[in-house]
Amino acid sequence: MHADLSRSTFRPERHYSAVIAQQGRVQLDADANEQTAIQLHQARALTADLIGPHGGPRDAAGFRIEYVGGKHDIDTLHIHGGRYYVDGILCDADRPAPGVPVPDEGDEETAKENAQDSVRPPAHWTYWDQPDGYRDPEKPGDRLPSPAQAPFVAYLQVWERSVTAAEDPALREVALGAAMPDTAARAKVVWQVLPLALDELETEETEPSKEVVRAAFARWAQKQAAPSARLAARAQRPDHADEDPCLVKPDSRYRGPENQLYRVEVHEGGAASEGTKGNGAKDATFKWSRENGSVVFPVDELDGTWVQLASLGHDDKLDLDVGDRVEFTDTAYASRLEPLPLLRVEELDLPGRRVRLSAEPDPGVGRLPHLHPFLRRWDHHEGPRRKGRSTTLRGGAVPVTEGEWLPLEDGVEVYFAKGGTYRTGDHWIVPARTATGSVEWPVDQARRPLLRGPAGIARHFAPLALVKGEGEALDLRLAFGPLASSIPAADEATLAAETRARQEEQAAESDPSGGRSQTTAEAEAAVEGDK
Length: 531
Fold this sequence. Notes:
Elements: H1 29-51, E1 54-57, E2 65-68, E3 76-80, E4 83-86, E5 89-92, H2 108-118, E6 124-126, E7 152-163, E8 186-197, H3 210-225, E9 231-235, E10 260-268, E11 270-271, E12 285-289, E13 296-303, E14 306-309, E15 325-329, H4 331-336, E16 343-349, E17 354-357, E18 374-378, E19 383-386, E20 389-391, E21 398-399, E22 405-409, E23 412-416, E24 421-422, E25 427-433, E26 438-439, E27 460-469, E28 472-475, E29 479-480, H5 492-510, H6 518-530
Parallel strand pairs: 1-29
Antiparallel strand pairs: 1-4, 2-3, 3-6, 4-5, 7-8, 7-27, 9-23, 10-12, 10-25, 11-24, 12-21, 13-14, 13-18, 14-17, 15-16, 15-18, 16-17, 19-20, 22-23, 25-26, 27-28
């Protein structure tokens, strides 16, 4: 999550069931976030245990797929509404109602007709307008394959990303004023219906059954979901420490002036660089931020290489400076998980809240205001790396080099294990603390840093339909029924006993004497009166 966090403390292997607040203590964001993570983990684990890897309620299962082609300009899918669960994560495909506007004065009849139409939400999404898909008909890679040439599987990809007030201005409390930072961020479930050629599932049958396709898809999804990249982090005494007059402790390793949460994120996916390959294959690159990638600047206007921002930052720590690397992006590209060139800030116009970038941003990003374009600052720079060797950026990012320690800054170093495959968006977070002069990272008994897989992004997959042509979509979804059922009838002996008990209770209510004779009842009443 690109959010302004102190650290992330949730570890499922510790089996904590709750965070317990103590009186008179400092309350940290990490504690509240861990409580949320614990509850979310428990709820999704229980849901997945009961439902299985994926499934929907029998009477309200969503994501029914229809292929529509031929008579239309461009092929599409109809994605019908309802709910579906993937690894315990709820995905809702219902379209919201557009709402009813206030009618214009003197136009009541038209307003009544518009109101009747507007309260009915569309019955389905399409492949092109699905809320987090952001498919582009102008991009050949986004178009659906032709089922006439080869069948394809329509599948569901699910993951989560953070959303701040830069993307959703409604999250900002305007009463706090524009000078104040935003408050809490949000985690959003992103679902995307995408095509996958049947050939990629490596099935041997030309006309596979549902079970065969589901099994082949499960094997494919397992490979996609399991990242092979691993990283370790440590803090070493910087070479320039003896020349720095602002020493924290003489034996400190991390020498930063403040506590930081470093984020190391894969920018361009692929394999690690192996020198000059000459085969056109893309090498993996990464970027890093000392603020967990949370420093963002909403964009008001783009004019060539000049970008006008809503704000230039709240202080000198969270602002922009010449030489900074920034990512010009928007909601669509944040959801597509596709790398964009990282640009350099060349010039600042402080009174006009403008910055000039080293190149004009990609033509397909940041031109639509409703997609909320913004700049995200990253903190790596091109320059000396170690012992005279320089860091040459590629596309504005740092090439991944495996098998050696790579310095970030102030003694913080990272190590990529050999043989990894890297995916855009995968990331690791490294808390650095001035009190210890070190980073918080797991180590073995010999104090050697341990290699860890990415903290995210966790991707989840579910097959929806095998599309063979228009009107020929083999449904691959699973459904479950409600757990509640009618209470079974009791046996005859139990029913008879219940009937006798009700009769005795009714008789006692209708006879105040409780079945005693009138003389006895009067005598007892007289004794009570004498007392």
